[in-house]
Amino acid sequence: MTDKALEISQVFKKRGATPVLQDVTLNVATGERVALLGHNGAGKSTLIKSVLGLTPIHGGSIRVSDAKPGSGKARRLTSFLPEAISFHPALTGREQLTLFAQLSGEKPDIAALLERVGLADALDRRIGTYSKGMRQRLGLAQVLLGKPAVALLDEPTSGLDPISRQDLYEIIDELAGQGTAVLIASHALTEVEARTDRIAIMRKGRVVADDTLAGLSRRAGLQTKIRIRASHNADLIARHIGGQRINGASVEIACDVGDKMAALRQITSLGGEVEDIEITPPGLEDLYRHYAQEIRQ
Questions:
Q1: Looking at the DSSP assignment, which residues form a beta bridge with residue 250?
Q2: Which one, out of 8, 209, 210, 254, has a CA that is 20 to 30 A from the CA of 104?
């Protein structure tokens, strides 16, 4: 046995003569939250469908808690929230979730589950009257049924307002806390940057990066930006440390990670000439752009 709830090893898949997944290796451990990033057509949805057993692979292997995708055991252990979620419009939220519970053999408190996802006031309304965001919340309630070993979330915040997005990530944290391995396919870079443990980036069917945010940053070697706001004379600061004048009152420099502390010592030596310092390390958007372009070169 292994603590890797989801193991994807050297997976290859083609559509006709065109490869759509090429040597994809990606593992998600018990209780880990992994973001899967990539442009449309990068292979994210195909990979998720392969994990679900909905589409066959032509090489490599996928295991869900040591079970083969599509097997009865794998289906019982896996929850899935698709981006384009759809339910029978004539059913109420309570009826739909009760049906899901019966199919899965679970006996949860349906009203409490719907309250947890913010649908307490709509549990007996027909789903046909729900907004897209409300249907997304109902889909999340279905993910919460039982204790899945693996949760696959495809653009889970689609259609949700900012407060609902925050609520969703709190629920994802709860899932991970109870031991669920969570794989989140998303375009929302600023969201997953702070709410996941690891980030995998796909490009043209390949995983081109897979690491923590700090690890990705170290490997990319992107520079940190330091902006110094002058108390009196920005020209004086620029003469001492170089850099670029910003808005007449500030100076901005860029430095490698290993040079950051030396740059800060040089700045603090200016004493009262410095009013404030802002340090901006490379963000996920910068890293994503770096790794997505890397394979094109």
A1: 229, 246
A2: 8
Digit-coded pLDDT (tens) for 94-119: 999 999 888 888 888 899 999 988 89
CA-CA distance, 106 to 116, in Å (whole number)? 17
Structural tokens at position 211: 């690491």
- Asked whether the beta carbons of 28 and 182 are under 8 A apart, the reply is yes
8 forms bridges with which residues in the sheet? 26, 62
Question: Domains of the chain, with CATH numbers?
Answer: 4-217 (3.40.50.300), 223-281 (3.30.70)
Query: How far is residue 66 from each of residues 3, 10, 23, 297, measured CA to CA in Å?
Result: 10, 16, 20, 37
Hey, what are 39's tokens?
A: 């442009």
Question: What is d(CA 122, CA 224) in angstroms, rounded to the nearest whole number?
Answer: 48
Largest interatomic CA distance in the chain: 73
Phi, psi values for residue 235, rounded to 5°: -65, -40
